[in-house]
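User: What would this chain look like folded?
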Amino acid sequence: MGLTIHYSLKCSSDDTAVRNCVETLHQLARDLPFKEVGHLVDLRGEECDFGQRDPKDPLRWLLIQARESVQYNPRRPQLGSYSVTPRRVIAFTAWPGDGCEQSNIGLCEYPDWIIDGRHGKQITNLTSWSWSSFCKTQYASNPRYGGVKNFLSCHLAVIALLDRAKKLGCLDKVNDEGGFWEQRDVEKLVREVGDWNEMIAAFCGRLKDALGDGVKMPVADFANFERLELAGQKRQPGIKQLIRLVQLATRKT
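Assistant: Here's the prediction, encoded as structure tokens.
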């Protein structure tokens, strides 16, 4: 829960062009103000299966995101979906900065079909190299990490990388919950993350009142949490009703 940039990449070129594209993005990430940029990896076969990795393996989260979700029947979404593990992954991890999630960038090649435990053989129809991921940037705005200045550095670094992917022709979609991707308005982005902090602080405070101190949310670590909580409660009259729904759901379980 928090302000996030969602993005997907797609490329129908041959293997060499795909690798060149990811290598170019990897080099750009090194030139941008990311705090850390991991090595470019080129994995094949079982190497691509996160389930074969130790829970502490630094590539595990990247490989979890590398899986593709495919609906059993697009005309009947109620049937649900299944996950497809890639057969090849060319990707890297770029960490924008303190308080921010890592951003994973790359392209994957998927099998034409898999054997699904529920419905047997499934044709994936995944014919292009692709990638879907997200990076939560909101908690980079924590005052202990540098506040808004740190948040902007993190958020805008990810956007700059996606801008380059667009120029290379491999960007598919972007959903920036801060609105910056579409509007390029820094002042509005600052207001947006402030609104998100207040909203989530209010929600966190009410949730802790209802369910106890066992509730853990990153915004609770902000030095100005109480001020954010109070401001959020004044602006979010629906918070009480939302907490009531959480209480009812908790009792049922």
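The mean pLDDT is 89. If you want, I can go into more detail on any region.
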